[in-house]
Design a protein that fits this description.
With 370 residues, the chain is α/β, with parallel strands linked by helices. Helix content is 36%, strand content 18%. It has four domains: 36 residues, no CATH class; 119 residues, 2-Layer Sandwich (Nucleotidyltransferase, domain 5), CATH 3.30.420; 115 residues, Orthogonal Bundle (Endonuclease III, domain 1), CATH 1.10.340.70; 36 residues. The chain contains 15 helices and twelve strands. A hairpin with a 2-residue loop joins β6 and β7. About 5% of the residues have low confidence. Keywords: Endonuclease, Hydrolase, Nuclease, Nucleotidyltransferase, RNA-directed DNA polymerase, Transferase.
Length: 370
């Protein structure tokens, strides 16, 4: 645009003779075409379908409401200092909340609100049940979106140029957002992990000290690389990167805390402190903690537990009983009693022919059966 209006600037310079040249005429016509093309806003039509594009940069949010691929409404705002410290997935979710609030009068009550984001990890968050989102900030924002029938989809950033531009070319003014949930009523049930404050702080410290987890914290802030050349835990976490969320310097996978190597023994001891078996210990950990190879670590720990060895009851498997092969029908039969709708039946099966008989009986006494 600035290049197009260059001939007009020449006309406004001091001590320059005003002359409408061919260049001015050409620039004028091009400007008229631009102002009448798709880059300008079109009128909203309640009968047409619409889409919303949302994006979040380092310091701002941007969104656009479109109908038939033409913009109807632009919106952007600068984030507060606190919001700028959010993880990227939280910023992207905030951009969706901001868009829905801005376009509320146009989208409220619609059968479907199609929203596009270029942040793929957000898709898995939107698909989760609210009580399975460990991040409380994301959970609160999801609650705010419940009044809309949202369908959030992924779109590569190169096709999200409108929202991307708005989030980077913003007005330097912070718009305050209302954080209360007075307009939403919902019940949340979640697994609660009870630790003392000093132990929670230890989880944070060890997460930052751990070589692998400290890298993941960094990736969750600035974004994951396209490829990982490292092996071990980092490669494993890369495969589930879309499911990882950071909150208060602790990393969560789904609704479980990812434990650093330093605290894994403590966690296993905590899970097994009542000396329950391997199966119950594994079931208990699935609700709370996660790390690669956790099942194997727990199994090895429980098998080596001296107290469990001392007091556990041996579960020796009984060998299968072999039956003699009979030569004639009804040399040997098997019987059982079945009850259906308060009526008693005797089920008889011949071992030789596999013939089945079902006989009605008045009661379950031995006399009636014989």
């Amino acid at each position: 645009m600035s290049e197009l209006i260059e001939p007009f600037r020449d006309l406004l310079r001091k001590d320059v003779l005003w002359s409408w040249s061919i260049d001015c005429d050409s620039a004028f016509n091009k400007l008229k075409n631009i102002l009448t093309e798709m880059t300008t806003l079109s009128n909203y039509n309640a009968k047409d379908n619409f889409t919303i594009q949302c994006d979040a940069s380092e310091k701002a949010l941007g969104c656009c409401l479109l109908q038939n691929n033409r913009p109807v409404y632009y919106a952007s705002r600068c984030m507060s200092d606190t919001e700028q410290m959010y993880a990227q997935v939280e910023k992207e979710m905030l951009s969706i909340v901001f868009a829905c609030k801005k376009f509320h009068k146009l989208i409220y009550g619609q059968s479907i609100v199609e929203i596009f984001t270029d942040h793929q990890p957000l898709i898995s968050v939107m698909k989760k049940e609210i009580n399975k989102i460990p991040n409380n900030r994301l959970k609160r924002m999801r609650l705010k979106l419940m009044i809309y029938n949202t369908d959030v989809k992924y779109c590569p950033g190169k096709y999200m140029y409108i929202a991307d531009l708005l989030s980077r070319n913003f007005i330097q003014r912070v718009e305050m957002t209302e954080e209360n949930l007075s307009d939403v009523v919902h019940t949340i049930n979640e697994v609660e992990v009870k630790f003392k404050n000093n132990k929670i702080e230890q989880f944070r410290e060890e997460t930052n000290k751990d070589n692998n987890l400290s890298k993941i914290l960094k990736y969750l802030d600035i974004g994951w690389p396209n490829k990982i050349t490292e092996y071990g835990d980092i490669k494993h976490y890369f495969k589930i990167k879309n499911e990882l969320i950071k909150e208060n310097e602790i990393i969560y996978y789904e609704n479980r805390i990812i434990v650093s190597k330093e605290l894994r023994k403590y966690v296993i001891e905590k899970l097994h402190e009542t000396h329950i078996g391997i199966t119950k210990t594994l079931k208990k950990r699935k609700q709370i903690f996660y790390w690669p190879g956790m099942s194997s670590d727990i199994k090895n720990f429980v098998e080596k537990c001296e107290i469990c060895k001392k007091f556990s009851v041996s579960k020796t498997k009984e060998p299968l009983l072999q039956h003699k092969i009979h030569e004639l029908p009804f040399q040997k039969i098997g019987i059982d009693i079945a009850e259906v709708e308060r009526s008693n039946y005797l089920v008889v099966m011949d071992y030789y022919s596999r013939w089945l008989e079902v006989l009605s009986i008045e009661n379950k006494t031995s006399e009636a059966i014989i």
